[in-house]
Automatic annotation (TrEMBL):
It is a multi-pass membrane protein. Coiled coil: none annotated. Pfam families: Sugar_tr. InterPro entries: MFS_dom, MFS_sugar_transport-like, MFS_trans_sf, Sugar_transporter_CS. This is MFS transporter. The chain crosses the membrane at residues 59-81, 93-113, 119-137, 158-182, 194-215, 248-270, 309-327, 339-357, 363-381, 402-423, 429-450. Gene3D superfamilies: MFS general substrate transporter like domains (1.20.1250.20).
Length: 464
């Protein structure tokens, strides 16, 4: 594809409001889509798409489909990164948003495995749509981060970089607010029959708003300079692996603890929190659902009602949003590397405290959610600036996208699956789950130690 000429140098630039909203709306949709799927993967998809006599097998099958998106994300990062570094950020952001939005909408239209003649095809189509979600997502985050930071005033990249990161708590609150509303307004039978489709179909409204805003963007000055100088990389993925392989590896592991924490605090805690706390309660729930119950395979959880725990999660995510915004000024003042090393050390300690915290009843559970989501905001906030800063302008989209999404495989794709396996192996204890989080934090600390501070990088002129 030929290189598209962007707006000429000296043309009016994107306004601050447009940059903030355009970078925020895309990642809000991104995380809305993922939270909707993650919640459905716990609540209804096991029974609707992977019916089995064993509830644990149903849940693990559902999470396996959940992980399909993470396999697709690195592929999407290469494809969208290529066009983002070749033809520009704007068109690529529009394409990634459409890919992701259409796939989410179609999930809401799928027949289930209980539909006559669809027992095998329905799960396959769900995995395919999940794969398409991940493919579009592979180019979404990096483009949104570049949109924010390449348009940022001098000395404020980390602050502007928190705008796309705010999409995570906003998307979570919207998605779970929708599920909560549906849960309160309809019977469990109606929700399982058709109500679960509504959150997926509603995503189309957010996509339309996002497209409208992004189509009004113009290219950022940093990429415009690459175009003006004729320094566009012919094959960005080849160049980034050839000239920036070390930042790729370090960026992947710098994101690792963030990803593991993120999906343990959302997908795993929802499973653990809403699992019955006793065999008697589990037997009663199985009887109500018309399913057999095997006490030998029962693994106890916290036993909260679904509505109560979703409200607790939303409460915790408020801290996620607050501290994502706080992280920007802190990373600007103290530097990305130093700040993230301190926060990652906190994540390591937090993982070691999971068992005593979760043993503290309601107060202890709320403490886990508040502390975990606070740490999530502090570690996630600076990533919007740090990862792009690690790469030259003409491979920045590809480099930051590949490292971000490769980390999604090592961290996010397997995190819920590993956590459930460790929880079951310990017969209900979260000791190994917490240590798994601590281990990921240790790897991230090593990567940060081996990396360099990027706060003062020349963002516009660093061409490889």
């Amino acid at each position: 594809m030929s290189v598209t000429k962007a707006a000429p140098t000296g043309a009016p630039q994107n306004t601050r409001g447009r940059v903030i909203f355009a970078s925020l709306i895309g990642t809000s949709i991104e995380f809305y889509d993922f939270y909707v799927y993650a919640t459905a993967a716990v609540l209804v998809f096991p029974a609707l798409f992977f019916p089995n006599a064993d509830p644990t097998t149903e849940l693990l099958s559902s999470f396996a489909a959940f992980g399909a998106a993470f396999v697709a994300r690195p592929l999407g990062s290469i494809v969208f990164g290529h066009f983002g570094d070749r033809i520009g950020r704007k068109g690529t952001l529009v394409a990634s948003l459409l890919t992701m939005g259409i796939a989410t909408f179609l999930i809401g239209c799928l027949p289930t495995a209980h539909t006559p003649g669809w027992a095998f095809l329905a799960p396959a189509l769900l995995v395919l749509m999940r794969f398409a979600q991940g493919f579009g997502l592979g180019g979404e985050w990096s483009g949104a981060a570049l949109l924010a930071t390449e348009n940022a005033p001098k000395g404020k990249r980390a602050i502007y970089g928190t705008f796309p990161q705010m999409g995570a708590p906003i998307g979570f609150i919207i998605a779970n607010g929708v599920f909560l509303t549906l849960n309160l307004s309809m019977t469990p039978e109606d929700f399982a029959a058709w109500g679960w489709r509504i959150p997926f179909l509603l995503s189309s409204l957010l996509v339309v708003v996002g497209l409208y805003v992004r189509l009004k963007l113009i290219e950022a000055p940093a990429f415009q300079k690459v175009l003006d100088k004729g320094e566009v990389a012919k094959l960005p993925v080849s160049r980034v692996f050839r000239t920036s392989w070390k930042p790729l590896v370090l960026g992947t592991f710098i994101m690792l603890a963030t990803y593991v924490l993120f999906y343990l605090m959302t997908a795993f805690t929802l499973t653990y929190g809403t699992t019955p706390s006793s065999a008697d309660a589990a037997a009663a729930a199985a009887e109500k659902a018309g399913k057999p119950f095997d006490p030998a395979g029962f693994v106890p959880g916290l036993g909260y009602e679904r509505t109560d725990f979703i409200l607790m999660l939303i409460f915790g995510v408020v801290f996620f949003g607050i501290f994502t915004l706080v992280a920007g000024p802190l990373a600007e003042k103290f530097g990305r590397r130093k700040m993230l090393m301190l926060v990652t050390l906190g994540i390591l300690v937090f993982g070691a405290l999971w068992v005593p915290l979760f043993s503290g009843g309601l107060i202890g559970t709320l403490a886990v959610l508040v502390i975990g989501f606070t740490l999530m905001g502090l570690t996630f906030g600076p990533m919007g600036a740090l990862l792009p800063e690690m790469f030259p302008t003409n491979v920045r989209y590809t480099g930051s996208a590949v490292s971000y999404n490769m980390s999604s495989i090592l961290g996010a794709a397997v995190a819920p699956f590993i956590a459930i396996a460790l929880w079951e192996a310990m017969k209900g204890s979260t000791l190994l789950v917490g240590l798994y989080l601590s281990g990921s934090a240790l790897l991230t600390l090593i990567a940060l130690f081996l990396s360099k501070e990027t706060r003062d990088v020349d963002y516009e002129g660093n061409i490889s």
